[in-house]
Amino acid sequence: MTGSREDPHAQARAARAQPLLLHSMSLFRELFETIFAHREIATVVEVGVESGQVSSVYADLGATVHCVEPAPGDELRAVLAEDPRLNLVEGLSPAVLGELPAADLYVLDGDHNYAVVREELAWIMANAPDAVVAMHDVLWPCGRRDFYYQPSPLAPGDAHPATTDGPTVWHDDLTPAGFVGDGVFTAAVDAGGPRNGVLTAVEDALADDGAAGGWRFAIVPAVFGFGVLMRTSAPGAEQIFDALRPLTSSNLLAALENNRIALYTRVLQLQYEAAARTDDADRLTETVNRQQQEIVDLRAELDRAKAENATRRQELDRLRGASVPQRVREPELSEAVTHLGRALSARIRKPPGSAR
């Protein structure tokens, strides 16, 4: 992290090796190590599987993992098939939870909306009350706004009106220059209000089901929010919350997360504007090319008109040249007629019997 005098660029190399947007649950490995250190975790149910990398974290810490994914790709299938500790479960949560053995740890990182998360928590609280529940995306942008993976399996009554536009931290309205899903997910048009967002689902679960059971919830304010939900009487609960307290209570960490999402959404805006300028430039190039072709066509038409005009001028000159001798012969004919008339008059005027 700090580099050395001999290698002063180590931190910079590590920084540029990271993706621009940090989002993976693998970044929380230290948090999972803390949970495993204070609680025996033999079975993990992971809802929402990325590439299998995060699944391996739980397996490396000693657990058998059930990886719930409704539409796994060939690459994910191959990764999970190589590790006998990882068991692919094809299906939608929360419906498949009842088909699996009760787990010591549930990791919820699937469909980030109120309806799904609320049902997942209701099932876990009722059927695995001593489990640890780790949750992702409990803060911005999903904390108070539903996101829906497409195509969404939710009934119309469980979803809010949604759009392909996305949120930004720079204003409250959605925008095509915001955090958009590019066809993977849509976002609720409005944020806040009832039954909207992951954190709202947690709060309602605590209010409806958690009060009597003594459930407790804490948030590590980093990488879109890492939430931990446990009953206070569950094995290791006190130790886990105590170990996480420096992070869950860190104003510095919260400030860094706010700055991170502000910078990232600013980058999204700049990328959108750059793409729009590129599109404008492409359209301008097409217009210029079209107008240049029109100029070429007009010049060709002008050349044809000039050639036609020259031909007509030549024809006119030819016609004019042919008409000149006729005009020249007309005076001669007139003069001949005059002479003939004079001769005839003179003849008429001669007395009879004179020589002809």
Q: What characterizes the major β-sheet?
A: 7 strands, mixed
Average pLDDT for all residues: 90
Oligomer: single chain
Helix run count: 8
**Approximately what portion of the residues adopt beta-strand conformation?**
15-25%
**Helical content (DSSP H or I, runs of 4+):** 40-55%
Give the low-confidence spans. Answer: none
Order of helices and strands: HHEHEHEEHEEEEEEHEEHH
Write down the overall geometry. elongated
End-to-end gap: 143 Å
Question: Would you mind describing this structure in some detail?
Answer:
The chain is of the alpha/beta class and 356 residues long. Helix content is 49%, strand content 15%. It has eight helices and twelve strands. The strands form three sheets. A seven-stranded mixed β-sheet has the order 3-2-1-4-5-12-11, with helices on both faces. It has a three-stranded antiparallel β-sheet with strand order 6-10-7, with no helix packed on it. Strands 8-9 form a two-stranded antiparallel ribbon. Strand 4, helix 5 (114-127) and strand 5 form a beta-alpha-beta unit.
Brief rundown of the structure:
By secondary structure, this protein is of the alpha/beta class.
SSE map:
Elements: H1 10-17, H2 29-38, E1 43-47, H3 53-60, E2 64-69, H4 74-81, E3 86-90, E4 105-108, H5 114-127, E5 132-136, E6 147-149, E7 162-163, E8 166-168, E9 171-175, E10 185-188, H6 198-213, E11 215-220, E12 226-231, H7 237-248, H8 251-349
Parallel strand pairs: 1-2, 1-4, 2-3, 4-5
Antiparallel strand pairs: 5-12, 6-10, 7-10, 8-9, 11-12
Helix pairs in contact: 2-7, 5-6
Descriptive key words:
3-stranded antiparallel beta sheet; 7-stranded mixed beta sheet; 356 residues; 12 strands; 8 helices; alpha/beta
